[in-house]
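Recall the central idea of this unit: under ordinary conditions, the amino acid sequence of a chain determines the structure it adopts. In this exercise we apply that idea directly, starting from the sequence alone.
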Amino acid sequence: MRENNLIFFNLSEDAIENSKAKDTDLVKSLCGNELNVNSLEILDITRLGKFVASALKDRPLWVTLGNRDIRGSILRNAYKLKNSDLYRKVGIGRDLTNKQREDNKVLRKELDKMKKSLPGKNWGIRRDKIVELPTVPPLVMGDAEMRS
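Accordingly, the structure predicted from this sequence is:
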């Protein structure tokens, strides 16, 4: 089922054409060490696209997990990868259908137009809709001490 799938982008790939065992270890290491998700049950793992030894980019990694809750905890903790030295460029996304990808593309174009036409407001996409996000005032030095 698609709701248990994730796609990992920019995970390093071996020169060996099919290295499922190494990819499985890599995903388990990333999730355990960086995302604090240790109870990981990987049912299937596959590199997407044709293997080319001289390719400059790594192929995306499609992962089927045992249940949806694990997928949710991985996605909730994915922001932690930004602070990692080893996995800073790794991206994690949901496995979307072609229609969902097309709808997201249209929404992102609409969002860009909204941001340009109304620059004073903070817009974002939530649950397949464009919504105005609340503005968070910048934290000024001294505010942190007053709040505690």
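Residues 96-133 form one domain.
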